[in-house]
């Protein structure tokens, strides 16, 4: 996983999705809100682990 551009782009997109979910939580229907929140949590945690993994791969 040497392509840091893809990791950076994925991280920006997932944190943007999380920010949108937080800002628009009142306008999303309750059943859809739960599913989107779970998907967002999974994506944000994946991006966090990819950041940590890429930092460990570089020796930091």
TrEMBL record:
Keywords: Membrane, Transmembrane, Transmembrane helix. The chain crosses the membrane at residues 6-23, 35-56. This is DUF2768 family protein. It comes from Paenibacillus hemerocallicola. The lineage of its organism: Bacteria, Bacillati, Bacillota, Bacilli, Bacillales.
């Amino acid at each position: 996983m040497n392509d840091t551009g893809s990791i950076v782009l994925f991280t920006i997109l997932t944190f943007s999705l999380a920010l949108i979910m937080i800002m628009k939580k009142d306008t999303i229907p309750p059943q859809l809100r739960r599913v989107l929140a779970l998907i967002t949590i999974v994506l944000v945690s994946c991006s966090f682990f990819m950041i940590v993994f890429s930092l460990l791969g570089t020796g930091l």
